[in-house]
Write the structure tokens for this entry.
Amino acid sequence: MFSKEASAKLRKEFWTSFGKSFPRKWLLYNTKIKDFSFKFVADKKQALVCLDIESFDRTKNELLFDQLLEVKSNLTEDYLPDVIFDEIYPLDTGKIIHRVYVKYNGAFNIHDKNTWQGAFEFFYEAMHQFEEFYEDFEDFIKRAIY
């Protein structure tokens, strides 16, 4: 069991190590669609690369999620075959969002440095594929709300 401070220190070290191992500027929040962003998630149980749709405007969320469903076969066939579409994804905060994500299949715990390298490689490859997909389908996705 780790103290809150020790856990925070390890999380910081994890993200710093990832940034040093795979230095590059990621798209993340710069999708030019408010509340539509790519994220890395790492905790004691799992590592994920996500595309989150989390506006307070439910209609906008539905439109964007439906637009992604329209190109789901492209995403799974050409970029991320193991992608998961979750229309109702509860965050730890209790907020419900739409999440499209890929989960790291290896053993992972952010508190175990021996599991970090595999997660780093997964993060790099999965986010790269998500960004490629977004670059190819950005205009189509934006049509849902513009």
User: Anything to note?
Assistant: Residues 30-142 form one domain.
